[in-house]
Design goal:
By secondary structure, the protein is of the alpha/beta class. It has twelve helices and ten strands. An eight-stranded parallel β-barrel has the order 1-4-5-6-7-8-9-10, surrounded by seven helices. It has a two-stranded antiparallel ribbon with strand order 2-3. The chain is globular, with a radius of gyration of 17 Å. The relative contact order is 0.15.
Length: 271
């Protein structure tokens, strides 16, 4: 585990402990049962692939530890609407407060503004957080293999399944991928960012792809900023992508979303 991830997880464990004191698990379970039905995160990505379209998970992201503030004019509902109008398949919303300046309210507001399924992007370490995610209305949760051992990952995945949540499991290298493939989820996210150097290389997805069975769905994450990037990975066999910063930094998020989803030959100077 990298130093920054270790620090984030330490703070997250303290945060969850505080949340447990403020709200009981029983209360969360009731809220999770009463939340609006899941919208089918994996099903939406699968439908896009079947239709021959890119499956874009567009991310609502205000800041990050490595880049600082990404978007000052930050309105989750407006951004979610722009993403949907631009052709996104699903949304990802950061809810981590200290490192990404996100919030639970960001997820609630973004999901209420659209009909797309929403991934809660946070650092999941405790079953409490999984149940909390469903109570907030999330349709999918993220499991980062670099932050979990195998027993933790299996427990969190089972909790998600029990609460009708899809699971996106994220890996950075071959060792993490081998562990992730022991889980049941079809959604395998390959993060192109090196956790030690923070350098980004799309070849990470290309190199790991051959080890992933055909019944899994690969989502490439980080470092994707142009239609050419998507076309490159599409030629390798990947058609689902998680993109945040490249879209969040644009003034016209809807137009930027349409542009990045366009086939390379359809690009124009005015896009």
């Amino acid at each position: 585990m990298s130093d920054i991830l270790d620090r984030i997880c330490e703070d997250k464990r303290a945060h969850v402990a505080a949340c447990r004191k403020n709200r009981s698990l029983e209360s969360l379970e009731i809220a999770a049962r009463e939340a609006s039905p899941p919208r089918g995160f994996a099903a939406h990505l699968r439908a896009a692939a079947t239709a021959g379209r890119y499956g874009l998970i567009a991310e609502v992201k205000k800041a990050s530890p490595s880049k600082g503030l990404i978007r000052e004019d930050f309105d989750p509902a407006m951004l979610a609407g722009a993403y949907q109008a631009g052709g996104a398949t699903c949304l990802s919303v950061l809810t981590d407060v200290p490192y990404f300046q996100g919030s639970d309210t960001d997820l609630i507001d973004a999901r209420a503004a659209v009909t797309l399924p929403v991934l809660r992007k946070d650092f999941m370490l405790d079953p409490y957080q999984i149940i909390e995610s469903r109570a907030l209305g999330a349709d999918c949760i993220l499991l980062i293999m670099a932050a979990l051992d195998d027993i933790q990952a299996q427990e969190l995945e089972q909790t998600a399944v029990d609460h009708r949540l899809d699971v996106l499991v994220e890996v950075h290298d071959a060792v993490e991928l081998d562990r992730a493939l022991q889980l049941q989820t079809p959604l395998i996210g390959i993060n192109n960012r090196n956790l030690k150097t923070f350098e980004v290389d799309l070849a990470t997805t290309e190199h790991l792809l051959s080890a992933i069975p055909q019944d899994r769905m690969v989502i490439s994450e980080s470092g994707l900023g142009t239609p050419d990037d998507l076309a490159r990975l599409s030629r390798a066999g990947v058609n689902c992508f998680l993109i945040g910063e490249a879209l969040m930094r644009r003034d016209n998020v809807e137009a930027a979303t349409r542009f990045i989803l366009a086939p390379p030959q359809a690009k124009s100077a005015g896009a």
